[in-house]
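Translate structure to sequence.
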């Protein structure tokens, strides 16, 4: 039926499942089943106001809904065996439709079986012919009793009256039905007893239980030593439904080694099912099984036939024939509209439900598997709700200004061969509303600001347009709320609600925040208002606001001490200056240069590595103590710099290094500037004394020459003298007694008496 109310329903709220109800079969009319209103959470007044309607899933209405109370009651007499046969569970399906808003609730009522049928044998008397040669333990299949009930109410077991020859065995077939086999306990003797008679009882499991009885007469035959033998004990056949009457199903075959009448075989269908006798027939002479009537897959899918072959002597054998019915595509799909919204707002969101419908196909497999599609290109799609229930929903934005109404054709098609189909056409009209949301010109806006930018600086402008007019086109801007747990980036910038201008709210430090994103929203003033979002990305540019920091040598020491041997060649690595800059990019690129040195030509600094190396080979004329100042500069605008100081000692060896360190003014924390001033004073004093000392030196030299010439004539040839530890004057340097050397490392010093110089050499250590 068509619902002419304006309804916007989402798929998630359109269809719901309510509990599975149950009612016993044969319930009287008016019997209470359940209270639908209570399960739906509605009162009787709400149920009546929303015009609740019960739609049966079939041609006949077995149930009835009271709109005032919400009670679901039995309307028509229901026989479970008539409706479902042996199928279990037996379900009666229906839907409850509610209006304002339109909702559909699907429910099922299960018909529970009552024990209203007793087991019945098709024949009141069963005659068995058994040869007296049958050995104990031989089994003889008996005719099965029929009970249309299911579950525990169906046939459960067989029993026989007391006798001295047989007991009964109850077995179960693949379809769950029980069958009886007569088991021989004691050998038969025709001369003693030619016939054995007793009763068989079939009992179901109902409460109270029901039963059926038949008489079994066993006729004992003289010995016929060969029984018929089937070529196969089980025949499996696949036959297509709708096959015509007299269609050949299968041919069973048995042989008997006896001759004459004992070798003649007659075939018959054992009466284990009335349905089998109504559907199949067998030729007693040839064993051909043919159809009595066409098969219907939707009614019965599998048949199990027991065939008996009996020879002229009364011996028999049995085989089983399983007939599988193959489904044919003989049922076209049906499209059943359960709900329809004739008018729809053009602003309806995606997946808004327009109509609800069911598709049914009584076939199975691919023949019963259906697909739904829409004819033509339209802004609608089909959404699957359940196995056979669908919803027609919107798949695109609707615009009444372009199309005012749609004729939607729903086509259902099965996957059989050949495929069958059915279609249904629906008329949908659109209602005009504020259906155009603002649109940003860009999805992502990127703006750049410098660090330390003052608050209130304009960074740029957002812009959004709206295709509507008037208030519906008046756009206002705002910053969206950040997700929980994210930084409050909205406190960094603001957006003017009218113009969309983005301004800074505070200064930012590039070293802490390099970039951030936030969501901006543009909303119109329509009713209801529509909005859209875009991403605003702010990139912070670095400023050169951090000077380089020297890590080595440590800035807290007055000067770092480095030792360089006198033999150091050009390029000798003296030290390495290490510095970092907290800025980024070009502002963090560092260069090194020698700003100040005692002898500028002696050392050089790597421009990018900071390595201090000798620019030339060290000579004896170079001052033993050197002081270097290295300048570290970045490439920012304006550039920032830092300095590092190094003290370098030029030494001959390890002992000389100790002497240099012991007399190093840096070790006594004397300023280098004061040392340089003293050196200048000493040079001036030395130049003043040169002239006066020159004359004294000439006189002393002449006197010394005369004195040495006189002594040479009196003394013996020169010999070398060695001085051990303790032979030096007390004011001499005690190398062995230095705190950093072991007393065991002492040296012998040898001087010649004829040496006129003050030089000496270390020869070897005294251990």
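Result:
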């Amino acid at each position: 039926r068509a619902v002419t109310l304006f309804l916007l329903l989402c798929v998630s709220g359109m269809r719901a499942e309510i509990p599975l109800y149950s009612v016993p079969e044969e319930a009287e009319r008016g019997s209470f089943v359940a209270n639908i209103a209570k399960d739906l959470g509605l009162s009787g007044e709400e149920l009546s106001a929303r015009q609740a309607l019960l739609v049966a899933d079939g041609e006949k209405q077995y149930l009835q809904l009271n709109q005032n109370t919400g009670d679901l009651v039995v309307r028509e007499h229901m026989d479970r065996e008539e409706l479902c046969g042996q199928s279990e569970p037996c379900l009666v399906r229906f839907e409850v439709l509610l209006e304002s808003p339109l909702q559909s609730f699907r429910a099922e009522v299960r018909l529970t079986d009552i024990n209203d049928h007793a087991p019945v044998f098709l024949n009141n008397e069963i005659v068995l012919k058994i040869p007296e040669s049958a050995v104990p333990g031989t089994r003889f299949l008996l005719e099965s009793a029929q009970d249309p009930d299911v579950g525990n109410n169906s046939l459960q077991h067989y029993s026989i009256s007391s006798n001295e020859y047989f007991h009964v065995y109850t077995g179960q077939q693949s379809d769950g039905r029980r069958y009886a086999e007569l088991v021989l306990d004691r050998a038969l003797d025709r001369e003693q007893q030619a016939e054995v008679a007793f009763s068989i009882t079939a009992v179901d499991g109902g409460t109270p239980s029901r039963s059926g009885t038949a008489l079994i007469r066993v006729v004992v035959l003289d010995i016929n030593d060969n029984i018929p033998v089937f070529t196969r004990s089980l025949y499996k056949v696949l036959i297509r439904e709708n096959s015509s009457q007299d269609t050949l199903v299968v041919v069973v075959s048995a042989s008997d080694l006896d001759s004459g009448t004992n070798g003649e075989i007659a075939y018959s269908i054992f009466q284990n099912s009335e349905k089998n006798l109504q559907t199949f027939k067998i030729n007693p002479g040839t064993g051909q099984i043919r159809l009595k009537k066409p098969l219907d897959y939707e009614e019965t899918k599998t048949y199990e036939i027991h065939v008996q072959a009996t020879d002229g002597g009364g011996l028999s054998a049995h085989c089983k024939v399983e007939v599988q019915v193959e489904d044919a595509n003989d049922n076209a799909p049906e499209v059943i509209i359960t709900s329809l919204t004739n008018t729809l707002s053009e602003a309806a969101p995606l997946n808004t439900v327009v109509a609800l419908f069911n598709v049914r196909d009584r076939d199975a497999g691919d023949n019963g598997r259906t697909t739904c599609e829409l004819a033509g290109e339209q802004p609608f799609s089909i959404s699957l709700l359940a196995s056979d229930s669908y919803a027609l929903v919107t798949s695109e934005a609707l615009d009444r200004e372009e199309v005012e109404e749609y004729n939607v054709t729903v086509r259902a098609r099965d996957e059989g061969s050949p495929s069958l189909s059915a279609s249904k056409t629906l008329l949908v009209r659109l209602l005009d509303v504020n259906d155009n949301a603002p649109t940003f010109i860009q999805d992502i806006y990127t703006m750049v600001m410098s660090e330390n930018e003052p608050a209130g600086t304009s960074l740029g402008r957002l812009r959004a347009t709206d295709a509507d007019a008037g208030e519906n086109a008046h756009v206002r801007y705002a910053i969206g709320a950040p997700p929980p747990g994210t930084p409050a980036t909205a406190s960094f910038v603001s957006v003017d609600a009218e113009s969309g201008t983005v301004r800074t709210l505070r200064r930012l430090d590039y070293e802490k925040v390099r970039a951030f994103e936030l969501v901006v929203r543009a909303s119109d003033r329509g009713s209801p208002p529509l909005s859209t979002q875009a991403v605003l990305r702010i990139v912070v540019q670095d400023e050169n606001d951090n000077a380089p920091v020297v890590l080595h040598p440590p800035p807290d020491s007055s000067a770092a001490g480095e030792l360089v041997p006198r033999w150091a060649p050009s390029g000798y690595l003296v030290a390495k200056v290490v510095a970092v800059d907290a800025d980024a990019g070009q502002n963090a690129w560092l260069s090194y240069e020698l700003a100040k040195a005692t002898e500028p030509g002696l050392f050089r600094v790597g421009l990018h590595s900071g390595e201090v190396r000798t620019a030339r080979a060290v000579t004896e004329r170079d001052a033993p103590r050197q002081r270097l100042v290295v300048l570290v500069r970045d490439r920012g605008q304006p550039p920032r710099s830092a300095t590092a100081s190094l003290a370098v000692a030029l030494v001959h060896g390890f002992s000389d290094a100790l002497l240099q360190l012991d007399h190093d003014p840096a070790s006594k924390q004397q300023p280098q500037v004061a040392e340089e001033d003293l050196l200048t004073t000493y040079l001036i004093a030395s130049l003043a004394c040169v002239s006066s000392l020159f004359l004294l030196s000439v006189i002393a030299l002449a006197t010394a020459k005369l004195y040495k010439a006189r002594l040479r004539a009196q003394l013996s040839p020169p010999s070398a003298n060695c001085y051990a530890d303790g032979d030096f004057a007390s004011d001499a340097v005690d190398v062995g007694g230095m705190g950093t050397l072991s007393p065991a490392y002492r040296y012998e010093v040898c001087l010649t008496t004829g040496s006129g110089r003050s030089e000496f050499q270390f020869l070897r250590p005294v251990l």
